[in-house]
């Protein structure tokens, strides 16, 4: 991992998230970027100075706020914290984060889950849910007041999808410096056939394609997938839960089935790392097309 982008609102409540992002970047030896998205305050027409001058001053002020915020709350733990700051004016937080993540080629984006009953939770967009569907890189969602703990144990919830293998490979590359244990878990649905055979197949595929030895596999039935994952979390006490955002193509499925990843994001008390299936499949397709073009050129 080379680059991490952390989104902050520069409030005191978000300080644990800032420290989490910085400590994780140090552990993974990654460059940390912090983004603060703001909207320009309304300016009355009777003002003496031009709107352009006021906007420039406001932009500089927001950049200073971001830099001062990072220094104030990190300097006590880290003498000279190095963070690349991005203060962006936008009426869409998620679009600004996506644009910056693309520009800096981020390997990971970190956001916090805010209390839905707070003023920010009521009046702003659900940033995490929007980013899940559009980011090319994984998204790490931090519950409020999350303190950083070294990633020593990670749970990856799988449904034996081909995309899971590619996500696991990327995850293993991320955590290799930490030698973290990855536990791949599957919660069989009621009346699910051949889940043990599927697990054996998946385990074999992972063994052939991923050169990371600290991976184990578990499967246990439960009333539903959510409670099954919660049981694993309570039993194994991992620092991170990893899931795949599996976008459904049929509108009827969106209407009849709740989104597991988005549900878990509000119920768990540990950070949630999300990979996007659609983006992984698109990237794989582009790689295949590239190989075909090279073959034709030869």
TrEMBL record:
<feature type="domain" description="UspA">
    <location>
        <begin position="1"/>
        <end position="143"/>
    </location>
</feature>
<dbReference type="InterPro" id="IPR006016">
    <property type="entry name" value="UspA"/>
</dbReference>
<comment type="similarity">
    <text>Belongs to the universal stress protein A family.</text>
</comment>
<dbReference type="Pfam" id="PF00582">
    <property type="entry name" value="Usp"/>
</dbReference>
<protein>
    <submittedName>
        <fullName>Universal stress protein</fullName>
    </submittedName>
</protein>
């Amino acid at each position: 991992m080379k680059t991490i982008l952390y989104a902050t609102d520069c409030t005191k409540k978000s300080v644990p998230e800032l420290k989490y992002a910085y400590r994780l970047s140090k552990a993974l030896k990654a460059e940390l970027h912090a983004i603060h998205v703001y909207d320009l305050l309304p300016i009355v027409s009777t003002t003496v100075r031009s709107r352009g001058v006021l906007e420039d001053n406001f932009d500089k002020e927001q950049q200073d706020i971001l830099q001062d915020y990072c220094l104030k709350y990190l300097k006590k733990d880290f003498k000279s914290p190095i963070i690349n700051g991005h203060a962006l004016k936008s009426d869409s937080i998620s679009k600004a984060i996506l644009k910056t993540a693309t520009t800096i080629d981020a390997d990971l984006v970190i956001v916090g889950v805010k209390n839905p009953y707070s003023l920010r939770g009521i009046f702003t967009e659900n940033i995490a849910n929007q980013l899940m569907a559009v980011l090319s890189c994984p998204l790490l969602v931090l519950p409020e007041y999350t303190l950083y703990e070294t990633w020593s144990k990670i749970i990856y919830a799988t449904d034996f999808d081909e995309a899971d293998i590619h996500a696991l490979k990327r995850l293993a590359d991320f955590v290799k410096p930490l030698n973290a244990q990855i536990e791949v878990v599957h919660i069989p649905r009621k009346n699910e056939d051949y889940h043990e055979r599927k697990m054996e197949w998946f385990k074999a595929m992972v063994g052939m394609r991923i050169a990371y030895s600290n991976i184990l596999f578990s499967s246990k039935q439960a009333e539903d997938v959510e409670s099954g994952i919660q049981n694993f979390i309570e039993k194994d006490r991992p620092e991170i839960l990893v899931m795949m955002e599996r976008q459904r193509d049929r509108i009827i499925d969106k209407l009849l089935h709740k989104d597991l990843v988005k549900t878990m994001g509000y119920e768990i008390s540990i950070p949630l790392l999300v990979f996007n299936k659609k983006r992984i499949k698109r990237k794989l397709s582009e790689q295949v097309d590239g190989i075909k073009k090279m073959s034709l050129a030869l």
